[in-house]
Amino acid sequence: MPPRRSHKKSRAGCRRCKSRKIKCDEVHPRCGNCLKHGVPCDFEHPELTESLNIPDTPGSFGAPSPSFSNLSSGFSPAPGPSVAARTLLTICRNPDPPAFSAASKNNRLMELKLLHHYTTMTCKTLTICDPSAENIWRDTVPSLAFSGNSFLVDALLSVSALHLRAISPHDQQLVQASHAYMASTLSDYGSNLSKGINASNAEALFLTAALIAFQSTASRIFVRDNGGDVKSRSNQYTLPLSWFHAFQGVKAVVASSWQWLRNSGIVVPIIQGQPALNLNLSSQESTYFANLLVGLDGELESLESDPASHMLTRQAYQHAVAVLNWAHKIPLSGAPMVFLATVSRRYVELLQARRPRALAILACFFGLLKCLDGVWWLRGVARREVLGIVHMFDPDDQVWWPRLQWPLRVVLHDGDVIPPEVWGADWEAESVLLDQANRQNGGGFINHIEMLSQMFAAMQNLPPGLPADTVNYAYSGAEQLISAQLVMARQEHGFSNGSRAGND
Question: Start and end of every Zn(2)-C6 fungal-type domain (predicted)?
Answer without folding.
Answer: 13-43
